[in-house]
Each structure stands twice: as structure tokens, then as C-alpha cells.
UniProtKB/TrEMBL annotation:
InterPro entries referenced in this protein's UniProt entry, alphabetically: ChyE-like, Class_I_gatase-like, GATASE
UniProt domain Glutamine amidotransferase: residue ranges: 60-210
Lineage: Bacteria, Bacillati, Actinomycetota, Actinomycetes, Actinomycetales
Gene3D superfamilies: 3.40.50.880
Species per Swiss-Prot/TrEMBL record: Winkia neuii
Protein name: Glutamine amidotransferase
Pfam families in UniProt: GATase (PF00117)
SUPFAM superfamilies, A to Z: Class I glutamine amidotransferase-like (SSF52317)
Length: 257
């Protein structure tokens, strides 16, 4: 089952904040809808800020006390791109997501960083990003570590689940004082925790089978050779990824206040 009915909260809850690191479009729309659905959130429970829009508040000025938690999205922008090729938007999102990442870790504020969000958290807190561990559009098995099995958020997911991936960089060396919660057979660092409340995933818990079709149609010759589209669709359609989608559910349920 991919879709959850969004239920109006019985009492007034502080909303979550979606820090968006990608331009508007079909992927951003699907991302928003899936996070709402799997978080079982009404419209009033999810605010948005675009980290690509210079007219929106700087993360250092946000009143985080208004929110239950923060979710940092993925992004088409990557840290490995040559500096002299980066657009104004690219440089802006790196600066602003870095500011937000440093702040939530320093305050141990409930946060879930997804893909680019994880990389921002790692890069700004002393970790390193490396090439060589790229994963194209597929659904590898994610395995919880012993720490992951004991964690109050991931411990409810079972020992293994599959999740969609799509990234060109990965976390190489973990930042100090972090806990590795989940690994993969090829890309080793798949989920990390800072302190007690800040989480990051390299995999994509916000992508459903329907949402992966949108990305396959958008990313030909980026994450896979365009002439292999039908094979990519077949392998992605065959994957059961609702275990990964539950990361969104568990994060929201744990930190909603």
C-alpha cells in the first residue's frame, strides 16, 4: 500500500518545516505529496521554505521553536560539481543548507536530511564526501546496524528493507560523534544519527513506486543511460519499498508535538 489517508490532527500540532533544495517541478510536487502522505500530515502540519530563493528567510533567522522538526530534501545540485560551473542557485543552496545543517546539529533539533540533506549534514560537521559509491536509480537492500535496531526511530522498521537510491556522491568518513544506523552492500553509509534527534539518509524514503516513475522520466542520461529506460523501470517497479517509506512515518510520529 503506497498511499496513506491524511487525517486532520485532533489537536493543534506545531508544523514540520520542509527545507526544499530543488527547483519547482514534478519531482518537487511528488516529494511534497509523499512526505505529507507518509507523514500522515494535514496541510497545516507542513510549512515550506525554498533554500534556492534568496527572498526567503535565511536559516539562521528561522524560529525553529515554531516547528516540530525539519525535513531537508534531496537536490539535483551536487557538491562534486566543479566550483566554476556552479550556478548562482547552486552556490546559494549550498550556503543555505550548510547554515541550516550546522544549526540543527548544534541544537540537536529534530531533523531528517534526505540524500543531499545527509551530505550537507555530514560535510558541515567534519565528515567527508567521496565519489566511487554512486548508486543509480535502483532499490538496494538497506540493513540496520545493531545501533539502528536499537534506535527509537529505526528500530521499528525491521532489520532490512529496500529503498530507492540515486546519487553520485556518498559519505566517506563519518563526522565525529555520529552513529551509523544503516548500511548497504555497495554504498556503506546509508543512514546516520547526530546526537539524539538529527537523522540523515542516503537512500530516499520519500520516493514511492509511482514517484520513481517520475524520476526515471526526468533523469535519463543522468543516473542511467537513456537507452536502458525500460530495464530501469522494470527493476524499480519490482521493488517493495514501503519499509523505507515508513522512515517518514516514524520520524513524524516520534517528533510531532
Amino acid at each position: 500500500m503506497e498511499e496513506h489517508r491524511i487525517v486532520e490532527p485532533a489537536t493543534t500540532c506545531r508544523p514540520f518545516l520542509l527545507a526544499v533544495c530543488r527547483p519547482p517541478g514534478l519531482i518537487a510536487q511528488d516529494e511534497l505529496a509523499t512526505i505529507k502522505a507518509w507523514g500522515r500530515m494535514a496541510d497545516m502540519e507542513l510549512d515550506q521554505i525554498s533554500l534556492l530563493n534568496p527572498s526567503e528567510p535565511d536559516p539562521s533567522d528561522l524560529d525553529l521553536g515554531k516547528y516540530s522538526g525539519v525535513i531537508i530534501t534531496g537536490s539535483p545540485f551536487g557538491y562534486a560539481h566543479p566550483q566554476n560551473t556552479k550556478s548562482v542557485q547552486h552556490l546559494l543552496v549550498e550556503e543555505r543548507v550548510g547554515s541550516l545543517a550546522r544549526r540543527v546539529v548544534a541544537e540537536d533539533f529534530p531533523t531528517l536530511g534526505i540524500c543531499f540533506g545527509l551530505q550537507a549534514l555530514a560535510r558541515t560537521t567534519g565528515g567527508t564526501l567521496v565519489g566511487g559509491f554512486a548508486e543509480d536509480l535502483q532499490a538496494p537492500t538497506i540493513t540496520l546496524t545493531e545501533e539502528g535496531k536499537a534506535d527509537p526511530l529505526t528500530g521499528r522498521l525491521g532489520g532490512e528493507f529496500r529503498s530507492y537510491t540515486g546519487h553520485s556522491e556518498a559519505v566517506g568518513h563519518l563526522p565525529p560523534n555520529t552513529t551509523l544506523l544503516a548500511t548497504g552492500s555497495f554504498c556503506h553509509v546509508q543512514m546516520v544519527r547526530w546526537g539524539k534527534n538529527v537523522y540523515g539518509t542516503q537512500f530516499h524514503p520519500e520516493i514511492t513506486t509511482k514517484g520513481m516513475r517520475i524520476r526515471i522520466n526526468s533523469y535519463g542520461d543522468t543516473y542511467y543511460p537513456a537507452d536502458q529506460k525500460e530495464q530501469v523501470i522494470a527493476r524499480c517497479d519490482a521493488a517493495e519499498v514501503t519499509g523505507a517509506n515508513r522512515v517518514i512515518t516514524e520520524f513524524v510520529q516520534r517528533f510531532r508535538r
